Amino acid sequence: MEANELGLFIATLRKEKQITQAELAKRLNVTDKAVSRWERGLGFPDINTLEPLADSLGISLSELMKCARNYEANKSSDDSDIGILASIDIAKSQRNKMIKKILLSFSCTIIGLCVVLYAVYLFINGTWSMIFHGNDGATTAFISGKIGVLPPIIMMGVGSVVLFIGVYTLIHLLNNDK
To answer: pTM higher than 0.90, yes or no?
Structure first.
């Protein structure tokens, strides 16, 4: 399926139905610029909009994918629509899983970086302090102390491992996505 061929097919069907680009865009919850890009062959509709696009144009999903009308109503068209819908569902679930994995790796990277930076801060400063406020508002306790070398080193090690895991999985996921 070529972008130009699909765009011409969408434009032809839209004009046959006497629908403007803005009306079609509103039905699909996209911008009219997106519809214009499709019709000019500059891009493809998102996988989530294929089924609503086919419904809006009054054709089956297989006809949309083939960029041709099927004037013979037969059962194979319905079967291919079911196959295409199943493929779309699989693609959606795979994309959602990939997004979750990327967010998890990004979170690991950020948490690891924060732990490493805090460990560096503790190592340089060598002290810690906390302020506790009482329930009555007037009572406040200030506690401070000296930190040895071991806790920041342990934090640095743990943070470095988490940071490495996050960066490694991000790079791995983004390279496999191509």
So the answer is: no
